[in-house]
Amino acid sequence: MKLFDTHVHLSDAKFQDLRPQVLGNMKAAGVELCIDVACDLRKVQVTRKLSDENANIYAAYGMHPHYAEAFTEKMLTELAEHMTHEKCVALGEIGLDYHYDFSPRDVQRKCFREQLELALALKVPVIFHIREAFGDCMEILRSVRGRGLCGVMHCYSGSYEVARECMDMGLYIAFGGSLTFSGAHNLREVAAKLPLERVLLETDCPYLAPVPLRGKLNEPANIVYVAQQLAKLHGISADDAAQITFKNAVELFGINTD
Length: 258
Ligand SMILES: [Zn+2]
Ligand SMILES: [Zn+2]
Hints:
This protein is α/β, with parallel strands linked by helices. Helix content is 40%, strand content 18%. The protein has helices at 19-28, 45-53, 73-82, 105-122, 134-143, 160-168, 185-193, 223-234, 238-252, and strands at residues 3-8, 31-38, 57-61, 88-97, 126-131, 151-153, 171-175, 199-201.
């Protein structure tokens, strides 16, 4: 099996002493590539170092909506600079999180819009983090329609209709461990209806460990369980699901695998 974990936080301090082992497990499980997402622009050094030192780790940079209140003009300039790094393949994760509301919603929207504008200007793919905020998110995305938007709705949790509209806008939909959760009937229904050509896989590790590992520290190797779940929903082999989603990710993020 050949897999691409499109959303990891290996830079998280929880992995500090575990990285050699986790990277070994990742390789053994057939997870050939991953993207480490630096979601707090005040600390991006570990992501930078991981992606510089490991051929199989790519990077994304962006200010997560949780930290929107700490976002500054200077960071926007720094972000533009991060986008020029050789291993950087996306801007994100950016978006709106009305579940936790760690930053005021108007501040989240401003932070989101400014980074989105930068991504459009630089023509880089965007990694979207949207939680309980699809109404406002889609309004913002509709306002930039026709301007070459590309990217992925990470850890998707919305409806089929919203997923459809996202795909029509040129976006991919990514599923992680939550696809395996026992209560996730609606999400599985959505995933079963989407064309696999627009679907990506991710772990979002160290969070969201899939069944049967819930509650444990999640790691890229566990993406195999998500691939198996997606395959089951589409009546295909896990190998095929892995291969299709791998190809999708490579295309979206413009990665040369020769
Ligand atoms: Zn996220
Ligand atoms: Zn994340």
